[in-house]
Amino acid sequence: MKYKPDDATLISYLYGELDAKETEKVLGYLNQNPEEFKNLQQLMDVRSVLKHVEDKEVIAPPVFMDQGGHASRFWQANYFKTIMSIAASFLLLMVAARLIGPEISYSKGELRISFNGAVPVEQKQILPATTSLTPNEVQEMINTSLVKNNELISTEWESNNKKLQASLRTNLTSNSAKIDDLMKVASQASQDQVRSFVAGLQEDNLRLMKDYLQLSAKDQKVYVENLLVDFSKYLQEQRKQDLMLFQTRMSSIEKNTDQFKQETEQILASIISSPEGTIKKVNNY
Amino acid sequence: MPAETLPDIAMMHSDALIARAREGDKNAQGKLVQLWYKRIYNFAYKFFFDHDLAMEAAQKTFISMHRNIEGLQEVPRFRSWLYTIAVNYCREEVRKKKASRSVSLHDLRPGENEESYRWEASSNRGENPEKQLRQTELSDLLQQCLMELSDEQREVVIMKEYEGLKFREIADALQISENTVKSRMYYGLDGLKRILESKNITKETIGYEV
User: Do B210 and A52 touch (CB under 8 A)?
Assistant: First the structure.
């Protein structure tokens, strides 16, 4: 059977931690498998490269050792401290209880807690009512009290009435004074308002008149200008028409003149051609 | 792994110190912090690539160590136990970061504001400054490649490559099987190979640069 070492054996061989027999077997295997040998050689190279990582210099911190024995550690143990603290708390409670002297008692459904000794409860005794007064005396007492009450009420009413009247008078005088002041203020205010209103109206009217005049002056100017232009246009048109009329008249006169001239020529020609007949005709005319 | 220094050797042979610390010796606990603080900080730094988060995780780890070391069952398991605490706090910080969804200004260009600090704190101060700067840049670049791995692969790779834990110890720290650890390691290295190829980082180019 062919021998093939596993990774663990190869790594042990690499670090020289195999026994002689195993080492010989691995060497034989590596001689027969150059690839594996090369791989192992590369791992050796990695190891040699890793050797270049330096150690860091460091100074160990000072050590302060507690030289105390086990006894001192017993006192410092957490469980001991806990038990001692609970015991101290109980002791404190007991001392406090002893000093203030509490007493707890239960009787007839009543739980009683007291400090510094029990104090006896004071029993209040209800005395019986006296029956020495007669109905007449009671009636007299009621009557006198009623009379006193009425007197008191009447005196209070009078004093209140006086106070009310006095306050009404003072209120009336103060109110009338206030109303007079208000009226004065109102009248003054109205006169001022009327004046300001009239002044405002005058200003408005003035402004309106100015605007109107300005506007009317502009309009009139425009109107007159337009009128003049229109009139000049009219005159030109009239002149044209007159000229045309004159021209037609002239042409008609010219025509008539020519016609007359021709007729005259014809008459003259006829006269020349037949003087006798012409004379007769002329005579006939 | 970097060359072993005196504190590293002391760290490896600190069984007696761990035993004393487990018995409640506070001075021994303080010395353990002094010895392991750098390793745990660097583990967290490589995991987050962030100084503040690494400091936070390292401090929480050692506070937890101080509180719980008396419950440590076996002294030889101290290392994996300590890394278990550190990994748990790292995962807790990652969960918090994802839940808050906030990005600090430092995260936008990680490590930038620590330029001066790194320069002054460098152990190679006597070397050529230009070479040292290149080395720092390369270190950051490789750190960025590491950040591209998944959290599970990254924690295994860091524990193995930089913290020098055995596979058994990593399995113990992460509370998973050894085979799972090896599988994550294999796929982590394979992933890194591809990431480095994509960035054109090889053994040869690094040799030329540095």
Answer: yes
- As a whole number of angstroms, the distance between CA B64 and CA B88 comes to 11
A83 min Cα distance to partner chain B (Å) = 24
The answer to whether residue B41 neighbours chain A at the CB level (below 8 Å) is: yes
Chain centroid offset of residue A230 CA: 70
Distance, CA of B1 to CA of A36 (rounded, Å): 26
Residues from chain B that touch A54, judged by Cβ atoms under 8 A, are: 135-136, 139
Residue type, A94: M
Q: Chain centroid to CA B1: how far?
A: 12
DSSP string for residues in chain B: -PPP-HHHHHHHT-HHHHHHHHTT-HHHHHHHHHHHHHHHHHHHHHHHS-HHHHHHHHHHHHHHHHHHGGG---GGGHHHHHHHHHHHHHHHHHHHHHHH----HHHHSTTGGGHHHHHHH-TTTTS-HHHHHHHHHHHHHHHHHHHTS-HHHHHHHIIIIIS---HHHHHHHHTS-HHHHHHHHHHHHHHHHHHHHHTT--HHHHHHH-
Residue B148 neighbours by CB under 8 Å, 6+ apart: B191, B195
Q: Is the pLDDT of residue A244 over 70?
A: yes
Closest by Cα among B80, B88, B95, B28 to B58: B88
Whether residue A33 lies within 8 A of chain B, CB to CB, comes out as no
What is the mean predicted confidence (pLDDT) over A83-91?
94
- Is the CB of residue B86 less than 8 Å from the CB of residue B44? yes
- Backbone CA torsion sign across B156, B160, B164, B165: positive
Residue of A nearest to B181 (CA): A8
Residues A58, B9: Cα–Cα separation, whole Å: 18
B-chain residues near A11 (CB < 8 A) = 182-183, 185-186, 189
State which residue of chain B sits closest to A14, comparing Cα positions: B186
Residue B166: count of CB within 10 angstroms of its CB: 16
Beta bridge partners of A103: A114
SS3 A133: coil
Measured between CA atoms, the residue of chain A closest to residue B168 is A17
Is residue A162 within 8 angstroms of chain B, CB to CB?
A: no
pLDDT tens across A264-280, in order?
A: 999 988 888 876 655 55
Chain A interface includes B185 (CB < 8 A): yes
pLDDT of amino acid A84: 93
Nearest to B76 by CA among B168, B194, B204, B210: B168
Q: What is the complex's ipTM, to 2 decimals?
A: 0.80
Q: How many CB pairs under 8 A join A and B?
A: 105
